[in-house]
Amino acid sequence: MDNEHLRYLEQLSELFPTISRASAEIINLQAILNLPKGTEHFLSDIHGEYEAFSHVLRNGSGAVRKKIDDVFGHTLGTADKSALATLIYYPREKMELVKSQEKDMENWYKITLYRLIEVCKTVSSKYTRSKGRKALPKDYAYVIEELITEKPEILNKEAYYEAIVNTIVELGRAEEFIVVLSELIQVLVVDRLHILGDIYDRGAGAHLIMDKLCEYHSVDIQWGNHDIIWMGAAAGQMTCVATVIRNSIRYGNLDLLEEGYGINMLPLATFAMEAYADDPCERFVFKVIPSGTNNMESDLIRKMHKAIAIIRFKLEGQMILKRPEYGMENRLLLDKIDYEKKTVQIDGVTYEMKDTLLPTVDPDDPYALTDEELDVMKRLCSSFLHCEKLQRHIQLLLKKGSMYRVYNDNLLYHGCVPMNEDGEFTSVNIYGNYYSGKALFDVLESYVRKAFFASDPVEKEKGADMIWYIWTAPNSPLYGRAKMATFERYFLDDEEVKVEPKNAYYNLINDPKIADKILKEFGLEGNGVHIINGHVPVHRMRGESPVKSDGKVIVIDGGFSKAYRSRTGIAGYTLIYNSYGLTLTAHEPFVSAETAIREEIDIVSKREAVEYADKRILVGDTDKGKRMRQRISDIKELIAAYQSGEIAERDK
Questions:
Q1: Backbone angles phi and psi of 329, in degrees to 5
Q2: Crossing angle, helix 63-72 and helix 174-189, to 10 degrees?
Q3: Which of 333, 371, 523, 329 has the alpha carbon at shortest distance from 438?
Q4: Which of 209, 307, 334, 449 is the most exposed place for a label (fewest CB within 10 A)?
């Protein structure tokens, strides 16, 4: 045995100081390997739709209802199953409704507790007792463990459990206990949550979603382009700040900034009213009009909208000039405006502009901010940098997030792997060096982290600037379009110039050979491996399928955001991967939690088995299982070292 390996085993002996302790650990790990794998839940492109997200999280995309069906089969009717499912999703709210209708609440409490206990037994059965115990709420851990753990030594089990339930009801703790059991089921039914990007923008509840994720028991996040731009804003990158504010105004989400994160919009409002006082700003309307908005508010917000849009175009121009290696010179448009002819030249073609009232743009130096604009942006950047809640949320994205993740034979990323028309990975210039495929993802992620953690101010600035690049550049894996035509949508009526051509990836990914090439690039080969991503909504109304490349690729952006539903025809796809295989779920639009509770309506509209496993998938078949097998092998070597005398057993 070489010295290095011996040192490793000596360190391992600190955890397992005796042969008996080491043997016990092997027995424990070997038992875990034979448990069914935990359920993984995949969501993408939530776009601030908090209520719909919360409901899907509560119902596990149908996983809770499936457990109820498994437990009760035909012994409960459909109505009773729906009522029980709704209770598990919204225990407090549902009980308030029941109390207004039910005459014998004591009997209802007992029946409900028994049903919840049975569901709890089933959802906890695939976990070790140790892991299940960790999920239990502290105050009721002992009682719940007694109820959901089989007691073969007790002769009259029925009387034993009945005594516990009766005591719970007699003490007036039934309602609290029902809430605890319902929330426990929600936790245990999903072992791992995967968020495939775009938590932010569009809807108004991104901060609430992030609060929920901060508390979630097991989650990873693959950054989306809308997440990355918020990360840049939190890093104080001025162009990212302007973009986040522009996006929020465009989608009627100023409340997210002002109330959700406490960002003061008064500096921008004051500046906009002065700079654009006589400008109706008619082309700067909401994409989605917030309810309760009056005409005066609309006029002010249109002015704010135009003011921040122009600031954004200036800052983007500064960025492109500052970083020529980004290769985005074709997006320098402010200097291409002819104010006399009211035209702009884009890619060699001249277009008529519908608005040339740009009082803050100096034709001789179009990308320079005025003193007033610079002052506004400095104050806004300071607000983002010093917002404690936003910084906490971004730290979660940094801690749990990444550009991509390989997990249990699935490759997860938000957008695309940039490719040329010939199917080769695009080589991209990142600060003078060229990267493609997996290496491109890795280097981009390293720069994102430098924006927050680098000690060298030059590297820190390069990282912050790179975040903006990832948001908008044609060769960014999180964007993947030839251009972001924001300027064209505001100022031109020609529809053709507003088109944002997609990267070749989006056509090529329908070819199983291309999917295999990408999977291999990230270390996955063979049967049963998949790419799972979002970013581009699946247009089910046009007959588009979320499953591509003979099942190798699954796209789960079906339109969580209300802004997409008219095009997609649904309200989002989600994916479940349990011990039986992969199940794709299409969701109906979510009306409200109140409607779901009152009418016991779920939003799972269609469940399709994407891939059934030939045999039940065990923990031993997962990444965790592979690590456990390696651990077992290492501990066996430690035992052999104890037995050979190379390492001495320690005191227990």
A1: -60, -25
A2: 110
A3: 523
A4: 449
